[in-house]
């Protein structure tokens, strides 16, 4: 019996997970199987993750969004970590990476696997460094021990920083911001101290064997991603990418699924080049990008600077986007930052899908637009990407229940609501009454809009959102 999704796919078997994915994506199960067999898509689904609702990551499918969570030494209780998982899934994360570096990592990870309906990713290097007592104390045996344990616990995909090699390090000397990946800096430090090749590269075949046994998907880390526009697309970044291409093919030989991580900070005119190059070098393995941020000048708004790059990357063929929050480069995100970051990235992912004319992608836009034109405010809120935010903003000025059927909102007001004017004109006669009024304004009593042009009544309903206390640790995307 096949141990991994790619092995089953290569043998011609459509698994239950492929069936479920096909149903979720409205695609033919056989097409899903072909994409997985060819390594063009992955279904991260550890055989030990029983609560998982399988999903697929690949450029031919809906673009996915990842959110990072995790504890630190300062905030390390199980309840808080579960609440973070809930918050990420509530706001639409398709996968969640636990980048925790605090206490009780095993208990938290096992609880996450037990409760998470979305794939769970980790960076096992972090736990290994913590257990070793520092980057220089790491050993190959310890790395394998931690990776195997996390695979047994049910982690669906792991970031493995095996692509940064000793010969790449001199290429970073002229950089403006050096090595900004946490995993990359740890591996570089280890290689310099020990005078040896990257230990994860050295034990790569053993990692493949572990992943094949439990069906863990590789997320090959981009340790040399650019940390600023000046370093984008440099020799170091592309040298590592070449190695990631070789590692992709080696993993496929073991029937192990692979996706490849990407930058970082990239100017707009080079985003597509990055995606196209990764697709070519890595034979179409799914590209999982952080941003990229298209400018360095907007700390506090990096969910926007990066969502611009993410939308462009999605249109160019990136399969999954790792969210960035407004706190990027500045501090620890709180719940509102997670919400804003996920909203920005779900917009980027959906815009990419619409731009790529993915089957059914624009149906959502069309349905919301119809509700908007029909002044069906409740339907408009329900269809909104963030229904609570849409309702809240509308109700700030027109809170009454009667305004849920009003043929205007406070943006233009009743007299200048273009959609109402347009509808009235089409229905015949109303445009005439508008122009025949003495003052040239709307005769509200005569207008079909009159029924809803009343003073506000009713109450402003508050949202029912999960609460996360201020200042708690939510890991930054750049942490890995
Ligand atoms: S008032 Fe303006 S913004 Fe509001 S519904 Fe009418 S056209 Fe749209």
From TrEMBL:
<keyword id="KW-0456">Lyase</keyword>
<feature type="binding site">
    <location>
        <position position="68"/>
    </location>
    <ligand>
        <name>substrate</name>
    </ligand>
</feature>
<dbReference type="Pfam" id="PF01964">
    <property type="entry name" value="ThiC_Rad_SAM"/>
</dbReference>
<feature type="binding site">
    <location>
        <begin position="222"/>
        <end position="225"/>
    </location>
    <ligand>
        <name>substrate</name>
    </ligand>
</feature>
<feature type="binding site">
    <location>
        <position position="126"/>
    </location>
    <ligand>
        <name>substrate</name>
    </ligand>
</feature>
<keyword id="KW-0411">Iron-sulfur</keyword>
<dbReference type="InterPro" id="IPR038521">
    <property type="entry name" value="ThiC/Bza_core_dom"/>
</dbReference>
<dbReference type="GO" id="GO:0009228">
    <property type="term" value="P:thiamine biosynthetic process"/>
</dbReference>
<keyword id="KW-0862">Zinc</keyword>
<keyword id="KW-0479">Metal-binding</keyword>
<feature type="binding site">
    <location>
        <position position="412"/>
    </location>
    <ligand>
        <name>[4Fe-4S] cluster</name>
    </ligand>
</feature>
<feature type="binding site">
    <location>
        <position position="417"/>
    </location>
    <ligand>
        <name>[4Fe-4S] cluster</name>
    </ligand>
</feature>
<comment type="pathway">
    <text>Cofactor biosynthesis; thiamine diphosphate biosynthesis.</text>
</comment>
<feature type="region of interest" description="Disordered">
    <location>
        <begin position="427"/>
        <end position="480"/>
    </location>
</feature>
<protein>
    <recommendedName>
        <fullName>Phosphomethylpyrimidine synthase</fullName>
        <ecNumber>4.1.99.17</ecNumber>
    </recommendedName>
</protein>
<comment type="function">
    <text>Catalyzes the synthesis of the hydroxymethylpyrimidine phosphate (HMP-P) moiety of thiamine from aminoimidazole ribotide (AIR) in a radical S-adenosyl-L-methionine (SAM)-dependent reaction.</text>
</comment>
<feature type="binding site">
    <location>
        <position position="409"/>
    </location>
    <ligand>
        <name>[4Fe-4S] cluster</name>
    </ligand>
</feature>
<dbReference type="InterPro" id="IPR002817">
    <property type="entry name" value="ThiC/BzaA/B"/>
</dbReference>
<feature type="binding site">
    <location>
        <position position="97"/>
    </location>
    <ligand>
        <name>substrate</name>
    </ligand>
</feature>
<feature type="binding site">
    <location>
        <position position="261"/>
    </location>
    <ligand>
        <name>substrate</name>
    </ligand>
</feature>
<feature type="compositionally biased region" description="Basic and acidic residues">
    <location>
        <begin position="470"/>
        <end position="480"/>
    </location>
</feature>
<comment type="similarity">
    <text>Belongs to the ThiC family.</text>
</comment>
<keyword id="KW-0004">4Fe-4S</keyword>
<dbReference type="GO" id="GO:0009229">
    <property type="term" value="P:thiamine diphosphate biosynthetic process"/>
</dbReference>
<feature type="binding site">
    <location>
        <position position="265"/>
    </location>
    <ligand>
        <name>Zn(2+)</name>
    </ligand>
</feature>
<keyword id="KW-0408">Iron</keyword>
<feature type="binding site">
    <location>
        <position position="288"/>
    </location>
    <ligand>
        <name>substrate</name>
    </ligand>
</feature>
<dbReference type="GO" id="GO:0051539">
    <property type="term" value="F:4 iron, 4 sulfur cluster binding"/>
</dbReference>
<dbReference type="InterPro" id="IPR037509">
    <property type="entry name" value="ThiC"/>
</dbReference>
<dbReference type="GO" id="GO:0008270">
    <property type="term" value="F:zinc ion binding"/>
</dbReference>
<keyword id="KW-0949">S-adenosyl-L-methionine</keyword>
<keyword id="KW-0784">Thiamine biosynthesis</keyword>
<dbReference type="GO" id="GO:0070284">
    <property type="term" value="F:phosphomethylpyrimidine synthase activity"/>
</dbReference>
<feature type="binding site">
    <location>
        <position position="161"/>
    </location>
    <ligand>
        <name>substrate</name>
    </ligand>
</feature>
<feature type="binding site">
    <location>
        <begin position="181"/>
        <end position="183"/>
    </location>
    <ligand>
        <name>substrate</name>
    </ligand>
</feature>
<feature type="binding site">
    <location>
        <position position="329"/>
    </location>
    <ligand>
        <name>Zn(2+)</name>
    </ligand>
</feature>
């Amino acid at each position: 019996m096949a141990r991994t999704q790619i092995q089953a796919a290569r043998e011609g078997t459509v698994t239950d997970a492929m069936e479920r994915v096909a149903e979720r994506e409205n695609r033919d199960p056989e097409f899903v199987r072909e994409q997985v067999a060819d390594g063009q898509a992955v279904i991260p689904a550890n055989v030990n993750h029983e609560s998982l609702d399988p999903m697929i990551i690949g450029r031919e499918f809906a673009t996915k969004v990842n959110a990072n969570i995790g504890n630190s030494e300062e905030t390390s209780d199980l309840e808080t970590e579960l609440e973070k998982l809930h918050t990420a899934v509530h706001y639409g994360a398709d996968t969640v990476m636990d980048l925790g570096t605090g206490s009780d990592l095993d208990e938290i990870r096992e609880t996450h696997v037990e409760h998470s309906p979305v794939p769970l990713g980790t960076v096992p290097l972090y736990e290994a460094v913590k257990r070793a007592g520092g980057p220089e104390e790491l050993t190959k045996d310890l790395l394998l021990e931690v990776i195997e344990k996390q695979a047994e616990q049910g982690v669906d995909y792991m970031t493995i920083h095996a692509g940064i090699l000793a010969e790449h390090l001199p290429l970073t000397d002229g950089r403006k911001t050096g090595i900004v990946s946490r995993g990359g800096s740890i591996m570089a430090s280890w290689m310099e101290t020990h005078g040896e090749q990257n230990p994860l590269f050295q034990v790569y075949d053993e990692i493949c064997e572990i992943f094949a046994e439990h069906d863990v998907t590789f997320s090959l880390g981009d340790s040399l991603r650019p940390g600023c526009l000046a370093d984008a697309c440099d020799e170091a970044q592309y040298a590592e990418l070449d190695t990631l291409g070789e590692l992709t093919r080696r993993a496929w030989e073991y029937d192990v699924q692979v996706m490849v991580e990407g930058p970082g900070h990239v100017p707009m005119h080079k985003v597509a080049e990055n995606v196209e190059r990764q697709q070519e070098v890595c034979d179409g393995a799914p590209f999982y990008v952080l941003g990229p941020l298209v400018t360095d000048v907007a700390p506090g708004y990096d969910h926007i600077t990066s969502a611009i790059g993410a939308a462009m990357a999605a249109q160019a063929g990136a399969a999954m986007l790792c969210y960035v929050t407004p706190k990027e480069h500045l501090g620890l995100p709180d719940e509102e930052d997670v919400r804003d970051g996920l909203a920005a990235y779900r917009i980027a992912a959906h815009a990419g899908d619409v731009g790529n004319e993915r089957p059914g992608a624009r149906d959502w836009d069309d349905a919301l637009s119809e509700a908007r034109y029909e002044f069906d405010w409740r339907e408009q809120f329900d269809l909104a990407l963030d229904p609570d935010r849409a309702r809240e903003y509308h109700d700030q000025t027109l809170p009454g229940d009667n305004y849920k059927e009003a043929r205007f909102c406070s943006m233009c007001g009743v007299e200048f609501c273009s959609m109402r004017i347009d509808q009235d004109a089409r229905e015949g006669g109303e445009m005439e009454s508008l122009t025949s009024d003495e003052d040239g304004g709307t005769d509200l009593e005569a207008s079909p809009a009159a029924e809803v042009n009343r003073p506000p009544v009713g109450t402003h309903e508050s949202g029912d959102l999960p609460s996360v206390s201020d200042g708690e640790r939510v890991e930054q995307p750049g942490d890995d």
